[in-house]
Write a structure and sequence with these properties.
This protein is α/β, with parallel strands linked by helices. The chain has a seven-stranded parallel sheet with strand order 3-2-1-4-5-6-7, sandwiched between helices. Helix 2 runs parallel beside helix 3. The two termini are 35 Å apart. The protein contains nine helices and seven strands, in the order E-H-E-E-H-E-H-E-H-E-H-H-E-H-H-H. It has a single domain, classed as NAD(P)-binding Rossmann-like Domain (Rossmann fold), CATH 3.40.50.720. The longest helix is centred in the middle third of the chain and has 22 residues.
């Protein structure tokens, strides 16, 4: 398999933390990148890349940016829990524009989904990729919508997509929950690379986590693309295992703090409503 795509790749959300990591490392590997974000790119634009400031809600702009691209790495949109009115345009309408561009260009979509699509499962439940959604907020709902949109565009239009349910991708582990969901930057880059270069993917869900012994997640589609994580949160266990909050809701659920935002139940959410498959 070639180590770089034969045609340009569109990367949305290029000015965000993960977008900047991908822009830097993929460009260094010789990829031709079309970078875009609603915010200016904060770093020097890498050699072999170009940057265009654009809003995901502008469908015409997205169509133009995708011209000639056979892969769209969709890391754009609101990336934290916010009110629905703030999430809607970039994460719902913008996602539609991404898939319409992919349909027109016959491009594959690699979608930055999230662990917050399943945040209201308890931490002692091990999940496979075909579990039911239990989003923990409007952000999580938008990511579940993104995965469902990908399913429909594959079934109806043959648009291939790989949905990466990213855990916590950051420079280091900073609390006990992250010991279970940590995805190193290097593992993220390898995951995106394989999701882009694999010859055929159909529609897949892959848990975006490193090889963490305390992980919450099990089966997924990683074998299809030939990816296996090489890093682990385990070296941080002695330092972070006791680093927990004083919130019983936050510590019960896989989504952590996001589950507490706007939480108004008088009692915990019962398991039996949505049992794991």
């Amino acid at each position: 398999m070639a180590d770089r795509p034969a045609r340009p790749v569109l990367l949305t959300g290029a000015s965000g933390a993960l977008g900047r990591v991908l822009a830097r490392t993929l460009a260094a590997a010789g990829w031709s990148l079309q970078l875009t974000d609603i915010l200016p790119f904060p770093d020097p634009v890498p050699a072999g890349a170009s940057f265009t400031q654009a809003d995901l809600a502008d469908g015409v702009a997205i169509l133009r940016l995708a011209e000639g691209c056979r892969t769209i790495l969709h890391f754009g949109g609101v990336s934290v829990e916010r009110p629905f009115t703030e999430v809607f345009a970039p994460n719902f309408l913008g996602l539609y524009h991404i898939y319409e561009a992919a349909r027109r260009e016959k491009a594959r979509v690699v979608f930055a989904s999230s662990n917050h699509t399943i945040g209201f499962y308890e931490r002692d439940v091990r999940l496979d990729h075909d579990c039911q959604f239990r989003p923990d907020g409007y952000y999580g709902v938008s990511k579940a919508y993104g995965e469902l949109m990908g399913r429909m565009y594959w079934d109806k239009h043959g648009v291939e997509n790989v949905n990466l349910r990213i855990g916590g991708s950051r420079p280091k582990v900073d609390d006990a929950r992250t010991l279970s969901i940590y995805l190193s930057y290097a593992d993220l880059v390898r995951l995106v690379t394989r999701a882009t270069l694999a010859p055929h993917v159909g529609t897949l869900v892959i848990w975006g986590a490193s090889n963490n012994s305390r992980g919450f997640w099990g089966k997924d589609g990683r074998d299809v693309i030939g990816w296996a994580p090489e890093d682990s949160a385990d070296p941080f266990i002695p330092e972070q295992a006791g680093n927990v909050s004083n919130s019983p809701v936050e510590e019960r659920y896989q989504g952590g703090r996001y589950c507490t935002i706007g939480y108004s139940r008088a009692e915990p959410s019962p398991r039996e409503i949505f049992p794991p498959r």
